[in-house]
Amino acid sequence: MWADLVGISLSQTPYQAFYIPLGHRQPNAFDQLPLPWVLEQLKPLLEDEELKKVGQNIKYDWIVLKRHGVHLRGIHCDTMIASYLLNPTKHNHNLGEIAREYLDRSVIDYKEVVGMGGKAVTFDQIEPEKAKDYSCEDADLTLQLSHLLLPRLKEEGFKDLFDQVETPLTIVLAKMEMNGVKIDIGLLREFSKEIESQLLQKMERIYGLAGETFNINSSQQLGKILFDKLKLPVIKKTKTGYSTDVEVLTKLSLQHELPMEILSYRNLAKLKSTYVDALPKLVHPKTGRVHTSYNQTVTATGRLSSSDPNLQNIPIRAEEGSRIRQAFISEKGWVIASADYSQIELRILAHLSKDETLREAFRKNEDIHARTASEIFDVPMEKVTPSMRREAKVINFGIIYGMSAYGLSQQLGSEPKIAQVYIDEYFRKYTGVQTYIQKSLEEAKQKGYVTTLLNRRRYLPDINSPNIPIRQASERMAVNTPLQGTAADIIKVAMIHIQDRLEELSLSTKMIMQVHDELVFEVPEEELSKMLPVIHNEMEAVMDLSVPLKVSIHSGKNWAEVH
DNA sequence: ACACGGCGC
DNA sequence: TATCCGCGCCGTGTA
């Protein structure tokens, strides 16, 4: 969304590529062809569904081309995504990295072309001859890699996931990024000023309690005050010194007023710097909206990630946090609609484990945490107290994360022995879940990887490690990844179906955000009554599991109103 | 520029 | 021996 088109490189035969310089502003850039003419020539080819296209990070090219009036079609292979499916835990899937791995060769580093850091220039400042070498290599290697990676994908059983899910999803994401979301900058500026004055007040109070001024944002300086000056007990250490994290400060708050003040200060400072002040800077001058980037090749589990800004970690729980969501608004005459999968990972656990008790609970549409409370505390559903339900909820989520008795006890604030009793009781009632976890661990140890419903794969090289904590970490991943990853599979397919329906029905509704189990739309008021059932049905009917998928959907003027 | 501590989901 | 999965971003401190 922020890029200009400087040149195009193309290849249709390995070891042969062409560079078309278009927008170089550099003394040696003569005889460039006019951009509109070049696009006019290429447009019929790029838009032809029958001409197969291969690229590296195609979503980027798709958006740049779309912004120049070209609708890229016939996408056959994105080498970045091919590499990701073959090994999602690889650190990065840029061209240099995958060319090194699969073609055993090095490539011209982009930084060598444009320079490093502050001295870096934009690509249009590069002499076309030099740009040609870089860009042609890029096109050539991408084509070569596709010839290598596509058969590999097929051999390893990723063809359906690649062709039917990840490749179509790329375009859905491109459209979603281009749609962007409208931000109420005025509201954020007001909020910023309010927080500013609250921070100043808290600062005064903190300096009073500390007996001196210091940089509250510095954990190092804070450590000196808390542990050297005030002699509070050291609860935890980091590599570099005293830990002052939320867990430590919460414990210390029982014996001194300062730690709680610090926590409250940090809370507000985080909100201000990460969201309130950061979001307005990312509003695009041409669209007046914020356009995040969805990364399709980052997570080990198959989830998406979001950056610039990360729209997937906007606060929701706390009161002040919801004020940030109020700033995510719709255009006049439009509304925000949000649809989220309810308890999707536990439902997937029920499906994958075939546990009859868990499946029955979901088929009867019971309150799953109350049901778990009823099972482990051995009381009828109507006798479940709020505190029993709260504990059962922690246990339910702990199961998904492959927790230990210690971890559960930390979460519950109880003794590990008590936590162990709860876990034992859970598995006694949900025997199918216990068997399922045992079987998945055995399979992971034997095969060296785990899979999701759509055969996404995550390798776990340390699953048989003799180092106990390292092995246990892998075991938790072995439990969690199929659940989190299957949820990712499901919502990805739903996104593709919904985008298809929107276009088929010629609707104006726009998909604007995805937050792991939630999809957010901007809907013209007059389309709302038609759209809500479409979204709801597509999401619930996306896959036929042995338990129902449940979606709740709400609309309102901003993102805070729809939860 | 990078590592780290810390923290939002 | 550490203890619940998966991320991205902020400010500090240091090189």
**What are the low-pLDDT stretches, counting only 5+ consecutive residues below 50?**
none
Report the C-alpha radius of gyration, rounded. Answer: 27 Å
Taking the sheet with the most strands, its summary is: 4 strands, antiparallel
Mean pLDDT: 91
**First CA to last CA: what distance?**
29 Å
- Beta-strand content: 5-15%
Proportion in helices: 40-55%
Number of helices: 21
- Estimated structural class: alpha+beta
What would you say this structure looks like, in words?
This protein has 563 residues and is an alpha+beta fold. Helix content is 52%, strand content 12%. The chain is built from 21 helices and 15 strands. It has helices at 35-46, 58-67, 79-86, 95-102, 110-114, 128-155, 159-179, 185-210, 219-229, 246-252, 258-276, 319-325, 344-353, 356-363, 368-376, 386-400, 405-412, 416-429, 431-447, 468-504, 528-540; strands at residues 7-13, 16-21, 53-55, 75-78, 181-183, 289-290, 293-295, 305-307, 328-329, 334-341, 449-451, 457-459, 510-514, 518-524, 551-556. The strands form six sheets. The protein has a four-stranded antiparallel β-sheet with strand order 13-14-10-15. The chain has a three-stranded antiparallel β-sheet with strand order 6-5-9, with no helix packed on it. The protein has a two-stranded antiparallel sheet with strand order 1-2. Strand 11 and strand 12 (457-459) form a beta hairpin. Helix 3 (79-86) crosses helix 6 and helix 18 crosses helix 19 (431-447). It is globular. The model has no long low-confidence stretch (mean pLDDT 91). It binds a DNA duplex (9 and 15 nucleotides) through helix 9, helix 11, strand 8, helix 16 and helix 17.
